[in-house]
């Protein structure tokens, strides 16, 4: 097992009515003027906005709205938030929403403490994060795990390229996870969130060095099983509290401190690298892009890295209950089960059905590998990436 450091400082308040902890938690971290970040306004329709602001008002905590944060948040939304924060002398950021809102809040938190442009602070930029405003989240959609990690993804201005911002300062101070807040999330977004969480686990599972990480692998398998079990329950009954609760907690656990990839060789997260380009070009829901890519990526990787057939076979048996004794056969059956799960939760069948043009596949492969090969179990270069996109097309 490789050396690693593990750090997750976020406090979680999980369950019904946990919004009652909001104001005291903000005050614990010195908050007195809150930038309230949220998206398109659904929280005003479902009552969550009132629940949040009533708690703030009761505690005499001032707040100013930063609304309209879009999915796959563009840097323009981040810059707007930085401006509002500074103009109103805020001292705390509260993100109420899903991954896009929380990701934007993290970039705002870093940006308000930096004199230059926030894009400098993205991975590969020339800026450095030396401080960040305190932030917290009230989660309204499960999937990304941003409520319990230190990273975010922001869409840049040039070619809508996805950029990562990451630093331990960007962990939320606390996150409130009330499964009832996800009851009204539309089916498409609920199921996309389920696959997003599953894919985080897949990205952590299929990584070189997995032969030495029994604890991480076995914990990961259990969380994957919980998603596969509970996603169809949410699909059948969106107000199934326990199913929503298990999905919400599984999504948070999938990325918490990158615990399931700890001790492995490291990964460039190939499926996410490809999925981000689909989101950039077609403004596609993140989890949907992963559902489209994952089966083809896994099958291609199995072919290119047959020395890891045992890992794919373990996955098939321990996650999907495949009983086949032959490793090679079991491995292929397990990958087929991933596709079956995506179909079961109503993800698009292929890239063509999702509206992707075949003529764009080479461009997508080029952009996905613009900063180097996408390595996990093996190197995935531009040609490999193009082949994966082609297999995912039909």
UniProtKB/TrEMBL annotation:
The keyword Zinc-finger does not apply. GO terms for cellular component: cytosol. One of its GO terms (molecular function) is methylglyoxal reductase (NADPH) (acetol producing) activity. It comes from the Bacteria. The keyword Oxidoreductase applies. Residues 9-179 form the Alcohol dehydrogenase iron-type/glycerol dehydrogenase GldA domain. Gene3D superfamilies: 3.40.50.1970, Dehydroquinate synthase-like - alpha domain (1.20.1090.10). Keywords: Oxidoreductase. Residues 192-393 form the Fe-containing alcohol dehydrogenase-like C-terminal domain. InterPro entries: ADH_Fe/GldA, ADH_Fe_C, BDH-like. SUPFAM superfamilies: Dehydroquinate synthase-like. Signal peptide: none annotated. It holds the Pfam family Fe-ADH. Belongs to the iron-containing alcohol dehydrogenase family. This is Alcohol dehydrogenase. It comes from Labilibaculum manganireducens. The lineage of its organism: Bacteria, Pseudomonadati, Bacteroidota, Bacteroidia, Marinilabiliales.
